[in-house]
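Subject: Polyphosphate kinase

B.,
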Amino acid sequence: MAAETTSPIAGPATSAPPEGTPLPGTPASPALPADRFLNRELSWLDFNARVLELAEDESMPLLERVKFLAIFAGNLDEFYMVRIAGLKRRQSTGLTVRSPDGLTIREQLARITARTQELVHRHALAFEQDIAPRLEAEGIRIVHWADLAESETRRLREYFRDQVFPVLTPLAVDPAHPFPYISGLSLNLAVSVRDPETGAPRFARLKVPNNVPRFVAVGPPDSAMFLPLEELIAAHLSALFPGLDVVDHHLFRVTRNADVEVEEDRDEDLLQALERELARRRFGPAVRLEVTETMDPQILGVLVSELEVDPQDVVTVPGLLDLSALWALYALDRPELKDEPFVPATHPRLSEGETPKSVFATLREGDVLVHHPYHSFATSVQRFIEQAAADPHVLAIKQTLYRTSGDSPIVTALIEAAEAGKQVVVLVEVKARFDEEANISWARSLERAGCHVVYGLVGLKTHCKTALVVRRENGVIRRYVHIGTGNYNPKTARLYEDLGILTADPRVGADLTDLFNVLTGYSRQTSYRQLMVAPHGVRSGLLEKIRREARHAAEGRPAGIRIKVNSLVDERLIDGLYEASRAGVPVELFIRGICALRPGVPGMSEDIRVRSIVGRFLEHSRVMSFANGGEPEWWIGSADLMHRNLDRRVEVLLRVCDDTAQRELQGVFDAAMAPGVRSWELGPDGTWVRSGTDDYQARLMRAVTENAG
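Prediction pasted inline below.
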């Protein structure tokens, strides 16, 4: 079994400092102020606040607002499971560690708690006071038990008896019954009961089952009236504690550390180590306790003590807990309350009318830049792999897989290629957070089919999105390549904005061949023709290009930098952008999420502009552009500008040389940064201000539809 690959490129990455701390050998320039960085965790909360603003936006279709409420809740869950868990783990070491903006971990956690409580309160009120009444006006109601008619309660009592009661397990808490384990993200009822004969109080915990719908339908099948499952259970507590008086009940929810840390040993099977850590994940320490506003202080004290959470980590929520469950309402068949459906178009170069073209023949004529979800993933990237799997002239397919869908047509095509006798090499990154178990399953399926599977590199995650097809044409070997910014996942390709290049450029094919030799063997390759590859080449390559722009500006030649990423955190690159700005280089940053750079500060970043667009599709692509004295360079790839991407992952940035593709990338940037676009602008004080009404994503949808027509 091909379990893991040990490679020289893993060496430097394993010694990289923890994310969120300044890198060694990069002292702050005396000319730059010490407060030049924004806090990354608070910046992430600002991003989630932008998601919340979309939920609060009355101009959005009603169920789209519900969707953004659910996204906000899910985002916050993951933030606590990973980022807050990481801060707490570092705090437990006892070392005094400060973030680049100068805050200790305790100070960061205090500010995060205050900001989180504010956002959670806004989030709950947006639903309770604004969206829920609007839903009710549209016939979609979430009701309380006390609101129900007798006929409705009778029907629900039968449902409880048949579907819910059998899966409930009340757990007593007393000297003979220790406090039970509370699983992460589960809803729970803390129940107070009393012995009617002795008056002795008792305490029990009751888990709200997660394999029963959270919102129970009330009324006929076509009705859109729902009762929260926890209310149905609460109305029947006497059936669960016969012979006792039910005094009170309170809802709570626990979030646990879910950030798996695999102690990678070069002599141990990586899959075994990972599976062991996944088993431990569910028992991670609690990092957040969510309670309702009506929670009894005495019961809260018991929970805080037994769960061993800091009182600072208690989040009080008005109304319903866990609004990520609102996805169930969004799933209702009410198209008039949602965005109009959008059908991705086939890239015009990949079809003739309704007839698909050979991807290989098309690429021999020139590169194709695909922009998802505007261009169909199924008729471009997926078709590329499927045609390669079926083509008798294809000798080999090599691909990296970081995340894919549960019924992945990409994996199916790779299996069919292997069964047809082609050489298929797949690097499946089994350390992809929250997809570890799915990726282990895919890896084993691929291996059983005869694919050569590599399970990642010791010390690094392989995050790059690459596919290489080797084809014999008239006795000559030719290589075809896809390099993209997003995962090989047809489902997220309809929701995430991403870019990809399909090319037959022999330089890119040679580069990717070299990279796969690094990933699967013992190659020491560190330099490439058309690629920048982390952990060795991306930060240094970008810094060199940023400094080159400063030189061009100083010498009066065209200069300019445009960067689109999910997150900008790396201090070296931020300082490089500050220096470029001071040299007169205009810098435009299109950043969806975290930004630790302060734009618009006189004498430091007055030529830097930062814009964020949050909308129907998740902006996910990474693009870098440099004016380069009048000879522009464009790069796309998988790397965000964060420590983990630059130091602890295999990432790829591809230089885009095709003139048409460069013009298309420039058009994307021009449209996003145009005046009047609905977006948020970052100010020097770290605040984001919303402005504009022009929907940038809607404009791109119209353009691709018109072009396809």
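The first strand starts at residue 141 and ends at 142.

T.
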